[in-house]
Amino acid sequence: MYTLGLDASTQSFSAVVIDTAEGSIVAEHAINFGQHLPQYNAPQGFIPDGKDGEVHADPRMWLDALELLLQDLGKLCDLTKIKAISGAGQQHGSVYLNKEWFKIIPELNPKVNLAEQIEVSLSRNSAPIWMDRSTHEECREISAKVGGDAAVCERSGSIPIERFSGPQIRRFYKNEPIAYESTARIHLVSSFICSVLCGNDCPIDTGDASGMNLMNIEHWDWDPELLHATAPGLVDKLPPVRPAETQAGILSSFFSKKFGLPAGIPVTLFTGDNPSSLVGMGASQPGKIVVSLGTSDTFFAAMPQVVADPKGCGHVFGNPMGGSMSLQCFVNGSLAREAVKDKFHFNWNQFTNALENTKPGNGGQVMLPFFRPEVSPRLNCERPLMTGSEAFCDWQEAEAAVRACVEGQFLNMKCCSEWMQLQPKTIYLTGGASKNDAIAQILADIFQVNVERLAVSGSVALGAAMRAACQSSDITLDELELSFCSPLENSLLYPQVAPHHYDAAAEKLAKLLEAAP
Ligand code: XUL
Fold first, then answer.
1. pTM
2. How many whole angstroms separate alpha carbon 482 and alpha carbon 325?
3. Is the minimum distance from the CB of 485 to ligand 1 under 6 angstroms?
4. Which of 83, 92, 130, 429 has a Cα-to-Cα distance from 273 of 20 to 30 A?
């Protein structure tokens, strides 16, 4: 049986098709928004230069990408063999729809593009995404109404967070009350795409709903007090919350007629990209830690019990396979690595050479590569914090700057994830940069653990394909993990430095943070 997993992420929309009987990957493909859809002027998947910290994307771009993706995928494999679908989306992004939405999606016409048909149902032209940090005031207001940050955290698993959808919804309600009033449905990226695929309005799963500051993590359902504190009439504008294993519906005839997918195959509820990656990494039972190096870097694990971050930067999310997961997100992920690379006009090979030509600890030169305000820890700076020689701080030592960037990211990750109280023997590494041995070695050295990579780098789409298979056939998660989540041969890396090698660098980093404006 073939199943299809989709991943609507920040910079691209990707897909994987797996053959569950053979235990093999049939096809993988991605549409990069900047490259394939330049007409949206979003080279990195979002509209650049938003005001007051706004970061938005055009939902029509995601719809165009979905169509291009399925068109291309049809050239790579036999789509008629696909028996089930699921997917995931970048977390926190919210899409605002008017009442036309409910009429339009059951009647999608395969002769007209999705974007063209659905655009009239948008009550807001753009969707705020997870990089948005415009809602500081709204976070404070929600906190005050509910009884403080700790009370919001106890209910929703996180203190009010700028990028989370609840504060974003409140800002929309305050700034554009008429458009808010005309909004009949608010979806997340995941539930929006899922609804389009099914041709009916679909629920939000508990994994992605926990990234909204609106769901109660004890009852796994909307929390009336949080809804009330966020915006009026919100309960009617949100779809229901359901466990990720719920069948969302069956595939809309739009997709069978236009792309040749079989009619009526089951679609399992979509979830957030990080919860989906947890499944794709074979880490949805407690015991494994995952680090994902993407647009954002994330550190996450299935949790045996719910623990909250006392500093309020980490999160408790729903685990799509049941229970909960912890997550720490670092905004300055691949875009920061890229910014350092570009500062010296390096390509990725030169970036890697720089890591290989320099020594662990970097001769005491340290950097926190925060090119945009960071959330872990919360810091409003727009340029890296550095300490070392004058030439280093003046960006004249290219190779040292590259090493300092990666070391700084992982030292900060280690410090920020301590609240999870996990003592891993191995970290499972995924995401675009995970294939890079030099980067992976620094992770092993700093955390003093083994680092493993899996054969598939697209663990988000893989997790979705695995969930689709679990929900729509007799195959078990254990069987799927055995076939798809085995480590890549010869990919295991061991720490190469002594346990306290990075202590001095960690101290310098703490001082840099203390002194930060
Ligand atoms: C997680 C987060 C990001 C997005 C985009 O809280 O904001 O990781 O899910 O990948």
1. 0.95
2. 22
3. no
4. 83
